[in-house]
Write a structure and sequence with these properties.
Length: about 425
């Protein structure tokens, strides 16, 4: 398979980047068409393999494909201009530069968020690289269907995509790669890193924790509904899903009333997008968290007769990650400035902070939390829709995968 991918990549390297992006535009148009047979097959098979609600899959796939549509902007943002992938461009006075993709990009995806491979597969192609994909066992469908759509739109481009599962100890997918991109637990990332040869660029996205911040100016039922949606999508399995919410006193709702409002919306969403069936271990964790909260929390709002959702509220802030599967922990604070010291000891695991409040306070919170490792601040209700410009885990998305050739001197600085 590697030989075929590398042969196809040699032809891809000669194609203009805008031509490649044009093909990807046609691919995304098909994926956003609910009547397209491939889109319909994806929805049906992903629901079957993951147990996630059909309405959730429809919304989630749209979000992932919309992100792919922002790929040209991401290329220009990280590279200065995507034309640097076609030839040398002036980067600064006296400096001509050209960007090179990895040639072969090997990707290992986790199965917690369906549609996740779309952006990285498209990005690899835009970097004029072949892409070898190991799809997750939990959701093995999407990557293959996305590759099939590319093949149907452009055979040459489609031959640059390979989707196959390989054993955890196999090394053949890494030896000829220019870069390896992996998602998973910290243990999985460490195991893959061990197999990647020296000199091959490795980008790993491991375990992260996200949370929400609700300023008093936005402590109302509308914000509560948006936060409940963030918790509901993908059953809280994504790295951007909020585990906790820190709610400032002094708003239209007290933090306790806000927690109750989130619970009411979680109950409504459970009817529209029922949670997938959890494993016995997950059910045990949910039951244990709710039982413990009856003695340690200030209030517990949860579904009756099952473990479909819960909001556990505390009047004193703390850092207590969720068991996931639609269990949110909420904490009252007198001022959002209290959140920094609470989350600071966990700086290596912080990722997305969803914020509801005035723009000027958002900037101040981003300043404080960014210094602690948070790489993304977004609006409550939008955590599952990262911008194509987001630097995942704080590092350039496209820029992490390219290398540069620079020519110093020339007309721009001649004397």
């Amino acid at each position: 398979m590697i030989t075929g991918l590398l042969e196809a990549q040699r032809a891809l390297a000669l194609r203009p980047v805008d031509e490649i992006l044009g093909v990807l535009d046609r691919v995304t148009e098909r994926w956003l068409d609910p009547a397209d047979p491939v889109r319909q097959e994806a929805e049906r098979e992903i629901v079957r393999s993951t147990g996630l609600a059909p309405a959730m899959i429809r919304r989630g796939l749209d979000d992932m494909i919309h992100r792919v549509q922002g790929l040209p902007l991401a290329l220009d943002n990280d590279l200065g201009t995507r034309e640097a992938l076609d030839g040398f461009c002036w980067r600064a006075p006296g400096m001509l530069s050209r960007a090179w993709g990895p040639g072969l990009l090997t990707c290992i995806f986790s199965g917690n968020v369906p549609g996740l491979p779309a952006f990285d597969m498209a990005m690899g192609l835009a970097l004029k690289s072949a892409v070898l994909v190991r799809p997750p066992a939990e959701e093995p469908v999407f990557a293959g269907l996305f590759a099939r759509t590319v093949m149907e739109e452009d055979e040459g481009l489609g031959r640059c995509l390979g989707v196959v599962r390989w054993g955890h100890e196999e090394t053949w997918p890494y030896g000829q790669a220019g870069a390896v991109l992996a998602y998973g637990s910290d243990r999985t990332i460490a195991e893959i890193r061990r197999l990647v040869p020296p000199g091959v660029r490795f980008v790993g996205h491991g375990h992260k924790i996200s949370f929400a911040l609700v300023a008093r100016e936005a402590c109302d039922t509308a914000t509560a509904r948006r936060l409940a949606y963030d918790v509901t999508m993908y059953d809280q399995q994504g790295c951007v899903s909020p585990h906790m919410a820190f709610v400032e006193r002094g708003g239209d709702l007290t933090p306790l009333a806000f927690a109750q409002a989130v619970g009411e919306e979680l109950a409504r969403l459970a009817q529209e997008m029922p949670r997938r069936r959890v494993s016995p271990e997950e059910a045990m964790a949910l039951r244990g968290a709710r039982d413990e909260a009856e003695f340690t929390a200030d209030a517990v709002y949860g579904s009756q007769g099952d473990l479909a959702w819960a909001v556990i509220h505390h009047e004193t802030p703390a850092f207590l990650p969720s068991t996931l599967n639609r269990l949110l922990r909420s904490f009252a604070v007198d001022d959002l400035a209290q959140v920094g010291p609470v989350v600071a000891p966990y700086r290596g695991y912080l990722q997305t902070a969803a914020f509801a409040g005035p723009p000027e306070r958002r900037v101040a919170m981003a300043e404080a939390l960014g210094s602690l490792g948070v790489s993304r601040v977004c609006a409550v209700g939008r955590v599952q829709e990262p911008s194509p410009l987001w630097r995942h885990d704080g590092h350039p998305t496209v820029g992490s995968l390219v290398r540069w050739t620079d020519i110093e001197g020339g007309e721009a600085n001649s004397r």
